[in-house]
Amino acid sequence: MRRRTVTAGNLDEILRATAPAGDAQAAAPAPPPAAGGRDHGLRTEFEFELPRGYVDEAGTVHRHGAMRLATARDELRPQIDLRVKENPAYLSVVLLSQVITRIGTVTDVHVGVVERMYATDVAFLQDFYRRVNSEGHTRAAVTCPHCEGGFEVDLSGGRLGES
Q1: Angle of CA points 73, 77, 83, to nearest 5°
Q2: How far is CA 155 from each of CA 37, 77, 97, 109, 127, rounded to the nearest angstrom?
Q3: How far is 142 from 21, CA to CA, in rounded Å?
Q4: What 3 state SS string does the chain have?
Q5: Is residue 162 pLDDT above 50, yes or no?
């Protein structure tokens, strides 16, 4: 059996080459949904509000953003990244840069953007990622420190006390 080294650049090529012959049609990308197509109810993007906010080069603070659901490829790609191999803690930076679709007006979210975020915001995004991809929602059960009553809050945005 011949071994192949898989890199992010040739992963698509290898998947096409190893697909069964009958699956050529299945391997082709699905056409975009037609206008007026049905919504199947699967939520794939989640809005969030950062605790501190990302400060861009111009000094503008961006707090609102969106994160999409992770795919298997998103989870696998960081495993072949040399930065992650050298420092496993870098995995979350690479992974977050792949699934965050926008932060404020910044739509080109790359590793450098995530690296420049405050640690508080990165920790928030790591928890948000886990909730969205593991539990399928952004709600968290909390307990009031005064009355000890339990209730749910939505972590996706909005400041406490706002409606």
Answers
A1: 165
A2: 30, 27, 20, 21, 10
A3: 52
A4: CCCCCCCCCCHHHHHHHHCCHHHHHHHCCCCCCCCCCCCCCCCCEEEEEEEEEEECCCCCEEEEEEEECCCHHHHHHHHHCHHHHHCHHHHHHHHHHHHEEEECCECCCCHHHHHCCCHHHHHHHHHHHHHHHHHCCCEEEEECCCCCCEEEEECCCCCCCCC
A5: no
What's this model's pTM, rounded to 2 decimal places?
0.61
Among 128, 148, 150, smallest CA distance to 139 is for 128
Mean pLDDT of 148-154: 76
Cα separation, 133 vs 127, whole angstroms: 10
Q: Binning pLDDT at 50, 70 and 90, where does residue 85 land?
A: very high
